[in-house]
Specification:
Blueprint (H helix, E strand, L loop, with lengths): L1 E2 L2 E2 H4 L1 H11 L4 E2 H8 L3 H13 L3 E8 L2 E8 L1 H20 L6
């Protein structure tokens, strides 16, 4: 899946956004990620499932305030893959002469 840090699984725009959101925190509620990405629950679920199957995201379900809640977190492997992917994108940008802001 990875070539020089570039990870095609993470590279898909929605999965990249999910990883970026999760990289900034220990854990995020599914609804927050859904709202931040602006996609439906079913679309987000599909992408989260792919990240989970790759071992990049951990899904935790629990009851809170008498409702089933779902939390998402990057695993150690997910954090490593995301950091490697971002580094690969930075290298590509540098090769293209695009300055990082």
């Amino acid at each position: 899946m990875s070539l020089g840090g570039f990870d095609e699984l993470i590279h898909a725009p929605l999965r990249l956004r999910v990883c970026a959101i999760l990289s900034a925190t220990d854990e995020a509620e599914f609804a927050l990620v859904r709202d931040e990405t602006g996609v439906s629950e079913s679309v987000l679920s599909k992408h989260v499932k792919q990240l989970e199957e790759a071992g990049y995201v951990k899904v935790r379900k629990a009851v809170a305030a008498q409702r089933q809640r779902t939390w998402l977190a990057l695993t150690a492997a997910g954090r490593t893959a995301f950091a490697g992917h971002m580094a690969a994108l930075a290298r590509l940008a540098a090769q293209a002469g695009v300055a990082a802001e």
